Amino acid sequence: MSNSTFSSRPGAVGTPPEHYGNPFGEQRALAAGQSVVELADRAVLTITGPDRLTWLDSLTTQALTGLGAGDSAETLLLNPNGRIEHAMRVVDDSETLWLLIDGSAREALAKWLDRMRFTLRVEIADRSDDFVTIGSFGDLGLPVAVSHEIPLVWNDSWAAVARGGHQYSRAEQHPGATWNYRESLVAVDSDLSDFAASGSLAFEALRIAAWRPWFSTEVDDRSIPHELDWMRSAVHLSKGCYRGQETVAKVHNLGHPPRRLVLLHLDGSEGALPEAGAEVSLGEKVVGTVTATARHFELGPIALAMIKRGVDAAETLAVASDVGAIAAAQEVIVPTDAGAEANVPRLPRLGAVKR
After folding, report:
1. Could you give the domains of the chain?
2. Model-level pTM greater than 0.90?
3. What tens digit of pLDDT does each residue of 102-115 get?
4. How far apart are CA 207 and CA 304, in angstroms?
5. If phi over 0 gives left and psi between -120 and 50 gives alpha, with beta otherwise, what is residue 324?
6. Taking CA atoms, which of 48, 86, 189, 319 is between 20 and 30 Å from 262?
């Protein structure tokens, strides 16, 4: 177990500590539910008003109207072409909908939501300066903030396919099956000195190993949910209309995503770890980009990468780094034939009509 503890009170949105001197030990402690991670790069928005659930439901990918007090969900905001613009982790307390988001999206999402209120009974507020987000695996007894008698805890649903969702992965045992991650909102003046701390690198390594996509790392301006297997937790396929739904349905039922997320097992013989954004190549051809990398305490050096869908899953790839190309073996997350779930039969070509 890591001996690190928080040396000061949490602050507003900023940069979380990467580690406290023992990255592998901090990973083990975090995974075992023996430490927590301060996520100072997260932000918090709230939506109040009687129309909050139906309103956000109409705008985003997840079915939210049935959320009860204390329930958690994950939802995506898409553009009209189905590309991901924002990701939200949400908790409802019966009067307020709490949105836990990446700090980089704080201003843009708040402004967009405010513009979309029209005459509906909703109000948007930024509460990022009042709370810090603390990540953990399991309940560690944190001094969680409470609103309307509901603890402000978001429970990640990544361990199983959410109601209305769909999983493209065909893994016999999904690495996220034991993922019991949660994020708790804690008041900024809370004393966390009694809790062992792990750095953000520990969470990143565990997330990558669990194939868990994250907005600030895996999403670019072309990303659609299918490419990341994010239909698993953040998209409800049979809910009402929302922006970008046509693309979601068309790719899922009739087409294939143009790219696919893959886990890469990196050759660690040179001791190098490529950076996010590094090119992924097959022979002389660039076929993708690394989105996140980590040194895992059991798996060694690993990465998530977005590559072209048609790349043969059996091929060994190469990742660019400061010491030269690093060999990378693929572990399939999204299969090459993902999509086309409707299996619509093709009509035979009609011959000339005889007269």
Report:
1. 23-249 (3.30.1360.120), 258-332 (2.40.30.110)
2. yes
3. 999 999 999 999 99
4. 10
5. left
6. 86
